[in-house]
Design a protein that fits this description.
Elements: E1 4-10, H1 17-25, E2 31-37, H2 44-52, E3 59-63, H3 70-83, E4 88-91, H4 102-111, E5 116-120, E6 128-129, H5 133-150, E7 162-165, H6 166-171, H7 182-194, E8 199-203, E9 206-207, H8 218-236
Parallel strand pairs: 1-2, 1-4, 2-3, 5-8, 6-9
Antiparallel strand pairs: 4-7, 5-7
Helix pairs in contact: 5-8, 7-8
C-alpha cells in the first residue's frame, strides 16, 4: 500500500478538482487522495465520485453536511488517515495555489528527518504570485505576530501546505485542536512544536487561485488574531508530552 495520503477539503471547487486529482496522480510518487467535501452545491462531490471509477482504491471521498470549517475537515481526514496506517499525511488546497509538484519536496523533507514539513511562502523572501499587496502584507505580518506572541520560530505559521509524519498524530490529541480557520494552521504547528516535534520549512511559490472563489473572510482573520493569544494563555496550563 502507498505510504502517502493527500487530504484536500473542498467547497465549490468544480473548476479545479478534476485537474487537481489528475495532476496528483500523475506525479512520480504514488500518492493516495482523500477529498473531504462539505456539501458543495456546485457538484464538486459528483465530479470526484465519477473519477473514483477511473482511480479505484486510491481516490477517496468523505462527504459532510454543510460547511463545518477547514480545521474540522482536516481533523476528520487525519483520523481517517491514521486508521489506515499511512506514514505521510498531507494537507493542501484544491485551487492550485499549492503546486502539487511540491508534494515530492515536502515528503522528502520528512523522509530526511522532519516530523512536520511546511510549504513556506516566507522562508526565502516573499514568494507569492497574484496576491494584492494588502493581502501579502496581512499574511506576512500575521506570521510576525504569531512569532511575537508564541515565541515559535516559524516564518509561515498560517501556511496550509503541510506534510506530517503519522507519529505526530499518535501523540497530539486532535480532539483538543479547537480552531477552524486560519488559527487552525497556527495551532497545529504550535502544538507540534510544543510536543517536541521537528518542524522544517520548505520554500515554495504560492500562486493565488485563477478559478473558483476564495474562502477567506474577516471572521477567519479575527479568529486567528484573538485565537493566538488564547492559545498561548491556555498552553501555560497544559502539559505537552514529548513526541
Amino acid at each position: 500500500m502507498p505510504d502517502s495520503l493527500v487530504i484536500i477539503p473542498t467547497y465549490n471547487e468544480k473548476e479545479n478538482i478534476e485537474r487537481m486529482i489528475r495532476k496528483v496522480f500523475s506525479l512520480a510518487h504514488d500518492f493516495h487522495l482523500l477529498i473531504i467535501d462539505d456539501g458543495s452545491p456546485d457538484g464538486t462531490a459528483n465530479i470526484v465520485k465519477n473519477l473514483q471509477y477511473e482511480y479505484p482504491n486510491k481516490l477517496f471521498l468523505e462527504e459532510r453536511a454543510g460547511k463545518q470549517g477547514l480545521g474540522t475537515a482536516y481533523i476528520h481526514g487525519f483520523k481517517w488517515a491514521t486508521k489506515r496506517k499511512y506514514d505521510y499525511i498531507f494537507e493542501m488546497d484544491a485551487d492550485f495555489s499549492h503546486n502539487p509538484n511540491d508534494l515530492i519536496k515536502l515528503r522528502q523533507a520528512c523522509v530526511d528527518g522532519a516530523d512536520v514539513a511546511v510549504g513556506s511562502r516566507y522562508i526565502k523572501g516573499v514568494n507569492v504570485v497574484n496576491w494584492p499587496m494588502s493581502r501579502v502584507l496581512m499574511s506576512y505580518f500575521a506570521s510576525v505576530y504569531v512569532r511575537f506572541i508564541t515565541g515559535i520560530n516559524v516564518q509561515d505559521s498560517t501556511a496550509g501546505f503541510v506534510c506530517y509524519k503519522s507519529r505526530v498524530f499518535d501523540v497530539l490529541n486532535l480532539d483538543k485542536i479547537k480552531f477552524v480557520g486560519y488559527a487552525f494552521q497556527i495551532e497545529m504547528k504550535y502544538t507540534a512544536i510544543k510536543h517536541g516535534f521537528n518542524l522544517v520549512e520548505v520554500p515554495i511559490i504560492f500562486t493565488d487561485r485563477t478559478e473558483g472563489t476564495s474562502k477567506m473572510s474577516t471572521g477567519i482573520f479575527r479568529e486567528a488574531f484573538i485565537g493566538v493569544i488564547q492559545m498561548k494563555i491556555n498552553s501555560i496550563f497544559r502539559k505537552y508530552p514529548e513526541g
